[in-house]
Amino acid sequence: MCSGLVGTQEGGTHVSTPRFRSVIVLAAVMVLAVGVLGAVGCTPKAATTSSSSSTPVKGGTLSYYIGEPAAIDPYNAQETEGVQVVHQLFRSLTDFDDYDATKLVPAAASTWTVNADATVWTFHLNPADKFSDGNTVTAQDFIYAWNRIANPNTVNTATKKADPSQISYHLAFVRGTDDYGNAPKGISGLKALDANTLQVTLKAPFAEFDYVVAHPGLAPVEKSLVEGGVDYNGSKVAFGEMPVGNGPFKMSQPWKHNQYIKVVASDTYYGAKPYLAGVNFMEYKDPDTAYLAFQSGALDFSQIGTGKIKDAESKYGDSADGYTSNPGKQVLLGAENSVYYLLINNKISVLNNLKFREALSLAINRQAICDTIFQGSRQPADNIVPPGIAGYQPGAWQYAKYDVAAAEKALADAGYPGGKGAPQITLAYNADGGHQPIMELVQADLTKIGLKVKLNPFADFPTYLKALTAKNFMVGRLGWVADYPIIDDFMNPLFRTTSSNNYFVFPNKTFDAEIDAARKMTDPTQRLAAYQALDKQIGDQVPVIPLMFYKHHHVVSSRVHNFIFSSMYLADLSKCWISK
Amino acid sequence: MSDDIRASEVLQGGVVGPQAPPEQEPPTENLARRELAGTRTLWGDAWYRLRRNKMALAALTWIVILVAVTLTADLWVPQHFGMPNAINTATAEANQFLGPSLGHPFGTNQLGQDMFSQVVYGARVSLSVGFLAVAIAVVVGLLLGAISGFYGGLADTLIMRVADVFLAFPYIIFALLVLSVLPRDFVTGSILPTVLTIGVLGWPSIARVLRSSILSVKQNDYVDAGRALGANDGRLIMRHILPNAIAPILVYATMSVGGAILTEAALSFLGLGILPNNLSTMISWGQMIAQGQPYLTSSPGVVLWPGLAIVTTVLAFTLLGDGVRDALDVKMKD
Amino acid sequence: MGRYIARRIAQFIPVFLGVTLILFFITTVLPGDPVAVRAGTKPLSPAVYKSLRHAYGLDKPWYVQYVDYLGSLSPVRYSPKSGLRFPGPDLGVSISYGRPVIAMFEETFPYTAELAFAAIAVEIVIGIGVGIVAAVKQFSIWDTFATLSTSILVALPVFWLGVMLQYLFGILLQQWTGGIFYLPIAGASGPPFADWQYLILPAVTLASVSTAYAARIMRSQLLEVGGQDYVRTAQAKGLSPSAVLWGHEMKNALIPVVTFIGLDLGAMLSGAILTETVFNWPGIGNMIYQAIGRRDYPVIFGGVSLILFIVLVVNLLVDISYAFLDPRIRLGSKVEG
Fold this sequence. Notes:
With 580 residues, chain A is of the alpha+beta class.
C-alpha cells in the first residue's frame, strides 16, 4: 500500500512508519465497520396462512403504531392518534358497528329514544357499565364530562394551565352550550333524570344526534379522578397522563411521552372481554421507521411505508373488505371517511359562473393524481361524500369525473370557448403539506382545456389558513375528515352559510333550510332520501371540486386474527386475537 | 447556524477557508516574459497567475459554460427536452422514473417531467440567487464595514454589536422566520425574499473582513500623507484604502456565491425557498431534491442529478475563489 | 481568567437581548395564528378561542409579552405569598401540545447531543487523521486525494448527502444483500436495529462537511508550522520525525483546529435542522423547525434561548481551552475579547 513514508519534502514533516500506519488502519477500520456492522435486518416474515383454527385464543399483547397524540384525555381527543387510544379506554353512549360504521350499536347506553320533533333525546344507561376502578357510570359522569368540554376555562390536568377543549363543537347541538359561562350549572340542555338516565335537549332538531354522541371524546369521566388525580404506585398521577375509563382496556402505567402508551384488558368492562391481554401503543415519529419495525416483526399494526404498497400487497395479501385483517389477507386499503377537495371562492366573478365551475371539475384527471403521486393510497372522488358513509351514491356529483370533451363544451357554454378570454386562475395551497404535485397536475389538466393557470403557494399552513379566512384566494384546497359517518357531517360543516369551512356563496339559494328540514325527519328512510337529494342538489352547483378520497394504507401482522380498522379510522381491539 | 455554511461563518474575519494546493511554480521568473504578458499592472499580474492555475481555470470555464447555458436555455432546451414543469396527466404515470435516454439525458421524475430540463432551469434560479444574494451582502457589508472601520468609535461598536446579533442568531431559524414573514406575490414570486434573506444574513462577515482590512491599513503612512495633502474621507476610502481591502473581499465574495447556492438549496429543501410562480420555468435544485425524496425507492435519479448539479457548481466557485486568492496573495507577497 | 469569563458573559447579555427582541418582533409580523392552526379545519368556538389566546398571553402587545418572557427566564421567583423560590426558568407551555416546553426539551436534547458528539468524534478522528496524512505526505497521491475529496465534501449540500446515504445504505444495500445487511434510514430507535445503528448515517452526514474543513485546516496548519524555525531547530538537534511531529508541531498546529472543532460542536448542539429533518431524528432542531411551521411560539423562543445559551457556553469553553493550549495566552499576554 504505502511506500516509505519517510523522506524529506519541502515544508513537509518527518514521520515514522508505525504511527501513521495505525492512524490509517484506524480510519479504514472505522469505514469498514460502518458498512459491516449495519444491522442484520431480518428477512420479513412471509405471509403464512395460520394453520391454527379460527377459534379465538386468549392472551398476548398487540403492538400498535401511533404518532404522539396531542391528548388522551377524552375532553380534548382531537386527532386520530388520541381518538384511537381514547376509543380503547372509553365507551361513549353509542358506538359504531364494527363491520358497518354506518350502523349504531348500543354502548354505554343500552337504549335511547328521541321525541317526535327530534329535539329531546333520552339515553338509558347500561347499569353494568363501570369504570375500570369499579365505580358505576352514572348520568352525572356524562354531564360532568360534557361540561368540561364546553367550558372555555378547563384546565389541563397535567400542566394546570388553561387548555380548553378543541372538540367542543360536538356539543354545539346541545342547548345551553353557547352561553356556558352564564348558566350556573353548566350546559342547560343536559339533565340527569336519574342516575341511569341522561336527557339531552338540543338547540334545534337533529335526528342523527345519536351518531354525534358516539364520538370517543364524549365519554364519561369521574370528577374525583379528574380533579384529584389517579393513584399509581402510591402517588397521584394527573388524569390526562393516565385516564380512567369504562372501555375494554385500561392504562397499566402513565403515558410515556414520545415512547409508548400501554394498556391492559379491563375486567370491569360491561361487554365481551377482550381476547388480548393488552395493547402497547408504540409511538414513532416516522411512519417509514414504523414500517421497518413492522417488517421485522416488532409491530403488529403499522402504516405501509412510502411507495411500498404494491410490494406489501404481494408480500402480505390484500384484505377481503379493506378493513378487516386475517392472516394472509393483511393489507388494509379500504376507503376512509375523508375527502380532499378544491375550494372555490366565487366572489371572483369568473368563478361565479356555473358552467365555468363545471368545466374546472370535469377537466381534472383524478385517477392520474391517485396513481402517479399516491400509488394506490387514494381513490378518485365522484362525490363529496365518501363510500363509507350511509347513503353514498356513486356519481351523485355529476361533474366530479374526468371528461375532457364535456369540460371543453362547458367552458364554451360559459363564454370562453377554448379558454379564450378567460381570466387567469390561481391555485392556492400551503407549500409545506405535499400539495404541490397535486396542484401541478391540476394545473396541467386545466391548461389542456385552454385556461391560464398559475400556482399560488403560501409558505406554510398558518399563512395559508389566514389567507383562506380572509378570502384571499381564487381556488384553494382543503381536506375534511368526517366526525360522524352521516351525510349531514359533510353537508353542514362544508355548505351551511355560517359554517367556518364554507368559502362559497351559493348564488341563488342557500341550502340551510334543506339541511334543517332533513335534520327534523325522524324516519330513517325518509331522512336518508332527503340527504341524498340534498347531496345531489349541492353537487349540481359545484361549490367545491372533490378530488380524492383517502384510503387506508395499513398492514397487520400475520399472527393477528379479526383485526378491524373501520372507515371511521377506529380500531376495535377488543375483537381481535393473537394466535400463538 | 446552518450545517452547510456554518464552517465558513465560523472562519470569518479572514479569508481562511478551503485551500487549494499551492502552485508549483519555479521560484524565479523571467521578468521580460512577464512584461510581454502584460503583467506589470496590479490586476494583470493577478489575472496572469489565475490563468496558470489549472484548477481555477477549469472552474472558471465551467462557470462560464453554466452561465451561457442558462442564458440561452430558452432557445434549445424546451425544443429538445420539453419544458421543466410540463406535465401530461394522461401519460404521467407511464412516464414516471424513466432511465437516462437521448430524449431524457437525466431521465424523468415522479410526474414524468424531464429532469435535464429541470436541472438547466434550476441553474438559472441558483445562479441568480447566488449572485444577487452575494451582491446584496457585499453592498451592505462594504458600507457598514467601511463606516465601522474608518470612523471607529461609537459607530464601530454599534455596528459590530449588531453584527454579533446577526451572527448569533441560529442561521436557519432566522432564515425560516424571515421567509415566512416576507410576502410573496405573483410577480416577484419567491426569488426576491430568498435573495434578501440570504443577503441580509451575509453582510456581517463581509463587514468584518473590510473592517479588519481597513484597520490594518489605517496606520500606514500613505494614509496620513493623503490626509495631510487635504484629501477628504471619501477620497481616502475610495482611492487608498478600498483598493487594498478589495482583495480579501473579492475572494470571500466568490466563495460565498457557492455558499449562497447551498443555502438556497437548503431553504428550498425545507420548503421555504423558491416556490413556483407565474413562470412555468421556475424550479430550484433544492426543491427537486425535496420533492424527489419520497420516491427514492423508485428511482435515485430524482435526487441524484440535482445534487450533482449543486456539487459541481459550488465546487467551481470554491476552486475559483481559491484561485483568486492565490493569484492576489502572491501578488501581495511580491 | 475569572475576569475574562465575566467579561464574556457581560458581552453575551446584550447579544441575547438583541436576538430575542428581534425574534419577538418577527413573530408579531409573522402571519398565522397558533390557536387557529391547532384547531385546523374543525370549528373553534369564540369563547374557547379567546380563552386559549389569553392563556398563552397572545392577547397582550408584543413588548409586554417580551418582558413577561424575560421574567419567566429567571430561575428565581418572588411572590408575596411564598417568598423567594428557585424553581428554575419556566419556558412556558407548548401551544400545539399543551406540554411544558422544558419537558419537551428534556426529551429531545439528549438526541441532539448524542448526534453532535458522534459527529464530533468522526470529525476528530477522520478530520485530523486525514489532515496529518495529507500534510506529512504533501504532494503525494494521498495529499491530492485528500485535497480533492475535501474540496468536494465542502461543496456538498448536507441534506443531499443525507438522502444519498439513505439510498446507498438503506435501500441499495438492502437489495444487494437480500435484506440481510443494511442500515436504518430514519428515526432514532426501534426494532430490528439497535439504537446506535440509527446514529451511524446521521452522524456521518452531519460530520461530513466539518470533517473536510477540519482536515484542510489541520493540513494547512501543519504545513505552516512545519516551516517554522523551531521545527528546523528540533530536527537539527536530531529528534526523530515522529517526536518532532507529536512533540512540537501538533501542539501548535492543533490550536486553530481545536477552535474550529469547538465552535462546530456549539453549532451542532444548536440542533442540525437539515440532518434531523432528513433522518427524522427527534432532536431539538426538528422540534424547533416544526414549531415554526405551527407558530408554536413558546417552543420557538425557548429553543432559540437554549441555543444561544449553549453556544455561549461552548464558545467560552473553547476560548478557555485555547488559553490552556497556548501558554503565551495563559501566561498573561493580552487576549482580544
